[in-house]
Design brief:
Layout: E1 2-6, H1 9-13, H2 16-29, E2 37-41, E3 52-55, E4 58-61, H3 67-82
Parallel strand pairs: 1-2
Antiparallel strand pairs: 1-3, 3-4
The chain binds FE2/S2 (inorganic) cluster.
Protein name: (2Fe-2S) ferredoxin domain-containing protein
Pfam family, one: 2Fe-2S_thioredx
Organism: Hujiaoplasma nucleasis
Length: 83
Amino acid sequence: MVIKICIGSSCHLKGSRMIVEQFQRLLEKHQLTDEVKLLGQFCMGQCQKGVNVTINQQMISVEPSDVETVFNTYVLKVLNHHE
Ligand code: FES
C-alpha cells in the first residue's frame, strides 16, 4: 500500500507536514512501516480541497484532525480485509 501526501505549498500551509508525521506515528504504532509506504507528492491541482492524500490511487482530502479516522478507514480496514 502506498500513501502519498501532497507537499505542495498550499497543502503545506494547511498542515501537510503534521499529517505526514501523524501517518508516520500511526504506521509505527501498528508496525506497518514495512507494509505501507509513505511518500510525498507535488501539487495535484486540487489545492482548494487540500491537504490532499492519495491512498492506493484514491484521493482523499484530509485535515490534521482527521488523520486517525482516515488511517482507520483507508489503511487498517483495507489491510485487515486482505488478510
Ligand atoms: S498544494 Fe496540494 S494540491 Fe496543490
